[in-house]
Amino acid sequence: MKTGTFTVPTDLLTRIKAAQNILCISHVNADGDAYGSVLGMVWMLRSLGKRATAAMPDPVLPDFGFLPGAGEIVGPDDTADDYDLIICLDMSSADRMGAVYDEPRFGAIPLVVIDHHITNTNFGVANWVEPRCAATAQMLVVLSGPLGIEVDTRLAQCLLTGIVTDTLCFRTSNTTPEVLEAAMCMQRAGADLSDIVRQTLNRMPFSTLHLWSRVLADAHLDQGVTWVTVSQAQLRQAGHEGDDSRLNSILSSINEADMSAIFTEKLGANGSPAVECSFRAKPGFNVGELAFQLGGGGHAPASGCTIAGTLDDVVGSVVPMLVAERRRQLAHTGATPQH
Amino acid sequence: MKTGTFTVPTDLLTRIKAAQNILCISHVNADGDAYGSVLGMVWMLRSLGKRATAAMPDPVLPDFGFLPGAGEIVGPDDTADDYDLIICLDMSSADRMGAVYDEPRFGAIPLVVIDHHITNTNFGVANWVEPRCAATAQMLVVLSGPLGIEVDTRLAQCLLTGIVTDTLCFRTSNTTPEVLEAAMCMQRAGADLSDIVRQTLNRMPFSTLHLWSRVLADAHLDQGVTWVTVSQAQLRQAGHEGDDSRLNSILSSINEADMSAIFTEKLGANGSPAVECSFRAKPGFNVGELAFQLGGGGHAPASGCTIAGTLDDVVGSVVPMLVAERRRQLAHTGATPQH
Asked: What is this model's ipTM?
């Protein structure tokens, strides 16, 4: 578990060692790294003989019910008020805590941050932000060293899940040798990589196939940009929310395109139409800036935003922006077409 | 590069160390591990000051042109006859050498085998067969140790490509900690994992999207078996051979199915219709035996065969066999539905 590349801040270590009753929380719209790191932290603290509770703002997604401890995660209404430390995991800013952070009860409890997002606002009294890690769970593999923790199977399964989901099983460009080393250590500690892949990445309902059939029938390609639209009618017919992450990975592998987009029709709260845009860029290209200009966020290879308007309106205005952005990047940044 | 789990046979090491002019060959219908291991072996031998030539029975696939040394691979007509050793890489039996093995010229030259297939026939004068390795390229990472080779970027890129392609980027069930360790060592030696993923797994022509749209429109699900058919007309419309490996990985992730199949219409040499069947099974299920009974081969999670007949005929006879096979395995082998 020695990964000398990273250093855990002393003040964070001191606070964790001193605390006895700790609340571990993660972010709204939780993903595999949120679940993996919050549960992993709980197992680490318990192995040190401390009391630890995992809490999340939203109900636990059934897909992550396989994680050891998932059944113990509590919601905003079931937290106590006698914690002596709050650890925020995988959260780039305080607003990502959602309803699970109850200011009146928690305001006086020290709060520390462990996160790998470069955009982290350092909102804790101690903050360990390590953007060179591909997942917050990877940071916890590192943390197990100075905390003197012998990683057991439960902990390993949680941490490897965070690493596998955030890197799409080692396919993202931030998959460094240190990521593979952390994953290897978790396998050796008992985590089942094959099971994690099956439970998280390799899962989708049969109806997705017919949804994709309809969506891909209208796949477009124009000047190095490929895109599809997903309507509410198509989603209703499928009976679920689709699988954007997998569809994104398909679109972003098209040889003839350097940028890709999925436009998904949303029903706004007030009934007015809106479109969720999900962008991907190949290495050397950047879709982060455009998403930011459009009121969203993300980073160079993957970003997103939500725009008011109908599918036709939004596609009609955003696709030319993507085409122009790609052309600008080809001309000014030395990016080269990937096909 | 110390992976103490595996032992290189002494007679193989002795023969490699003694030889000075070596022909490295791999199999017909070459895949990423064939290219990666044959080129990796050449770079290893050259770094020891030996002469080494890579030869393959078929022309080099353009997709693997990015591998260092791919441009130097020769075909059956361009081999010499003064080699003092032939190394067969990733080949389970002698017939897999195809036309690149010229018996009259090569019959007297000692031939050794390095391969990870459990079905290997040990057809060399020295044979290193290690089924616990997920790729022959992984075995070469091990071999670099006793040969005292300092792995450089070219060699690392070749070997990591073999590992990534044979494990679908660490998603197959034989991805052990030793696989991740070998991959990590290759990254540290200069291999670019992200580039390899982009060049091998994350590539497909835009026209595949419209092909998939038509194919997935007729996706079926019956009693835990899901399948699609691909007709010659659909392939002609797409203008290429499709991407079975990616389509297989989509079908095998369907929650409601434990077995999946792709039936692809082929035109037999004599004009009579035939169907290529590609099967996948979830953990605990086995499609290897059925493929073997049908005249094909493979192993428990992935197998295939080619059957004479029209698409309708073959689907009509094979799907009930898959359904019956799944039911039998549920009843007799303790396999449990994965959904």
From this structure: 0.88
